[in-house]
Amino acid sequence: MPAETMIGLIGTGMLGRAILRGWLDSGIDPARLLVCNRSGSRDGVPKAVALTTEPSTLAQRCDAILLCVPPASVPDLALHAPDKLILSVMAGATRDQLSDLTGSPRVIRAMSSPAAGRRLAYSPWIASPDTTPEDRAIAKALFEAIGKTDEVSDEAHIDLFTAMTGPVPGFAAYFAALMARHATAQGVAPEIADRAVRQLFLASGEMLANDPMTPEQHVRQMIDYAGTTAAGLLAMETSPIQQAVAEGLQAAADKARTIV
Predict the structure, then answer these.
(1) Cα(21)–Cα(36) distance, rounded to whole angstroms?
(2) What are the two backbone dihedrals, phi and then psi, of residue 85, each rounded to the nearest 5 degrees?
(3) What is the CATH number of domain 170-258?
(4) What is the model's pTM?
(5) Would you tell me which of 18, 52, 146, 171 could form a disulfide with 117, CB atoms 3.0–4.6 Å apart?
(6) What is the pLDDT of residues 202-237, one digit of tens each?
(7) Longest pairwise C-alpha distance within the chain
(8) Contact 58, 77 (CB under 8 A)
(9) What class does CATH assign to 7-153?
């Protein structure tokens, strides 16, 4: 990403603040950032970062603009930026809708998560045909600054990732809660069950992130070992859990496609 590129961020909700924090922690110069929100609130916006309440001001000054507002705010977003690179992490807003909204043919649609504030987000993205190699390089740099990223080839996959990796801790928290409930039902003190499950998911996340084996390979290895975990995994494999997870993710993805 060229050192002189000016980046605009519209929206300072939970996700917007997290992305801004991740960018700054990654070493992006605050002088290259301009943030816009309608209220003018500096909540989560450091003094070193310029702030405006006018999208038009941001559009004039910035080379690339990341839209990070709730889907319900899309109709009220007055942003005319036909010669700018538009990036978006708004759930459900398609590349065509984003182009119509801003007037720009250079659109990159993505999804991220509040884990961006810890530089742990997964941010897949897809570019419109009119984006340039330089545009793609900017997107890659901005999303790598807050975690891991991939360019995908099917826009429908952005809705899938909106459901699957956009909510953090999201579905992982649900499974952790189920395990904690089981432990407390067996008489374990709630605070101990909570501590145990938190540590389990911390350790599991570290291993899954850094070990060369895929999650599927981890599962097969445990089943092949034929120990206590294998007994549990085999019982789960013959239960309705796989279908239930698929139905839950599909319901979330379907919501993402109709939320705007």
Answers:
(1) 15
(2) -80, 125
(3) 1.10.3730
(4) 0.93
(5) 18
(6) 999 999 999 999 999 999 999 999 999 999 999 999
(7) 63
(8) no
(9) alpha beta
